[in-house]
């Protein structure tokens, strides 16, 4: 069976019916990310929470609902229960609570800070899910390409085993060479089985992230995303973008702002709250007089108020320290992944430009030498193994760049 036929058969085997359906995701990373945005249950939950927090901010700072109090005087004389015209008097009191000066604004600002925090948390979850989808798609692509290389290796090991069997039967090869060829064939088959398992696991992880059935079909991965240019990977620019757009850092900034608003709100609690009442009084069939009342709290529990102020101050200090720690950690992660990406890019270039051509040249020479009887079979197998390793090293370096790029985009909160 030729290499091209094997690859076609492999594609059909791994993705039944998916290759012909454009509505099935999996061919590219963008198709998975689009599906994620539309169908992720986790993202939908975070959107609802952010919308709920925005609604809370809209309602914050409004006056409390007023209350109505009705008082009857002289019910024992009326003979008709609750008949206002036959009692000594009926008072209708409308009570409106009025928060102290500045408290409504402080409550609204705290609620708005909470809404900003919820939005930042939504963006953080979105960035995290996008990064996870990118990583799993990269593993999916890596495993599929490794299977393709394994299929090509399988053609060689099958041919080598048959050739050694034929030579052994004619006395042109030793039993050791025959066993060595069969061992290589078995190792290749064992690797294929493991890769098929890894591919199925990657498909299941992708479907889980996309809120699809674990057995739902996926298209075969066509290509990885194009890597950004070196100019877009400038460390200073990336650090600036991280500080401006990282969802986790933005969430911590919002948390600090919320703590600051709570400090202000606690300080406002040292001023009294009010209740204003208006009470028309009915005697007989008409309103005979109108009473008014003013009630206010006396914030005399100074120890309790000072304790609340100290608590709010400590929480603000803790949030500020945590914000600084988060920024330092994120910048460290950015530098780590940026260095790793650049290292993987250099490794891929070295493998592609130097190691892989030399490995191919060494294998072709060993193959020609073996066919002419000048190179033994063990040398040929070593040369083929080195070629396979070089191809996998190039693939792994390419995949490593994508992984570190996904982490960098997660950290800066946007695509490069």
Automatic annotation (TrEMBL):
InterPro entries: MdtP/NodT-like, OMP_efflux. It holds the Pfam family OEP. Gene3D superfamilies: Outer membrane efflux proteins (OEP). One of its GO terms (molecular function) is efflux transmembrane transporter activity. Residues 176-212 form a coiled coil. Keywords: Coiled coil, Signal. Residues 1-20 form the signal peptide. It comes from the Bacteria. PANTHER family: BLR4935 PROTEIN, OUTER MEMBRANE CATION EFFLUX PROTEIN. Belongs to the outer membrane factor (OMF) (TC 1.B.17) family. This is Cobalt-zinc-cadmium resistance protein CzcC.
């Amino acid at each position: 069976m030729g290499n091209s036929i094997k690859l076609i058969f492999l594609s059909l085997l791994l993705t039944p019916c998916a290759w012909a359906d454009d509505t099935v995701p999996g061919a590219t990373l963008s198709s998975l990310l689009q599906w994620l945005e539309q169908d992720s249950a986790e993202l939908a939950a975070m959107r609802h929470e952010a919308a709920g927090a925005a609604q809370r901010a809209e309602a914050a700072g409004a006056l409390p609902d007023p209350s109505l109090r009705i008082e009857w005087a002289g019910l024992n004389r009326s003979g008709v229960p609750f008949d206002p015209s036959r009692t000594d008097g009926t008072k209708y009191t409308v009570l409106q609570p009025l928060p102290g000066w500045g408290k409504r604004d402080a409550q609204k600002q705290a609620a708005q800070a909470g809404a900003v925090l919820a939005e930042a948390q939504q963006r953080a979850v979105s960035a995290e899910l996008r990064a996870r989808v990118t990583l799993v798609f990269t593993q999916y692509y890596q495993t599929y390409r490794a299977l393709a290389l394994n299929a090509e290796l399988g053609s060689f090991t099958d041919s080598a085993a048959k050739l050694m069997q034929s030579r052994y039967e004619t006395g042109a090869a030793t039993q050791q060479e025959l066993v060595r060829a069969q061992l290589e064939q078995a190792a290749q088959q064992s690797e294929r089985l493991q890769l098929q398992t890894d591919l199925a696991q990657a498909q299941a992880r992708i479907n889980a992230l996309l809120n699809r059935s674990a057995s739902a079909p996926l298209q075969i991965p066509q290509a990885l995303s194009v890597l950004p240019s070196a100019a877009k990977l400038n460390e200073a620019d990336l650090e600036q973008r991280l500080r401006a757009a990282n969802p986790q850092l933005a969430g911590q900034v919002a948390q600090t702002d919320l703590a600051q608003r709570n400090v202000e709100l606690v300080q406002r609690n040292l001023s009294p709250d009010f209740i204003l009442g208006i009470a028309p009084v009915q005697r007989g069939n008409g309103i005979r007089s109108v009473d008014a009342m003013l009630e206010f709290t006396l914030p005399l529990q100074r120890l309790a108020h000072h304790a609340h102020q100290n608590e709010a101050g400590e929480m603000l200090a803790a949030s500020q320290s945590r914000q600084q720690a988060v920024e330092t950690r994120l910048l460290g992660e950015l530098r780590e992944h940026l260095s790793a990406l650049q290292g993987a890019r250099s490794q891929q270039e070295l493998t592609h430009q130097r190691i892989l051509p030399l490995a191919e040249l060494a294998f072709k020479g060993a193959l020609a030498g073996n066919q002419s009887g000048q190179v033994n079979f063990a040398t040929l197998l070593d040369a083929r193994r080195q070629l396979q390793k070089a191809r996998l090293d190039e693939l792994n370096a390419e995949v490593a760049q994508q992984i570190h790029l996904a982490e960098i985009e997660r950290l800066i909160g946007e695509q490069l």
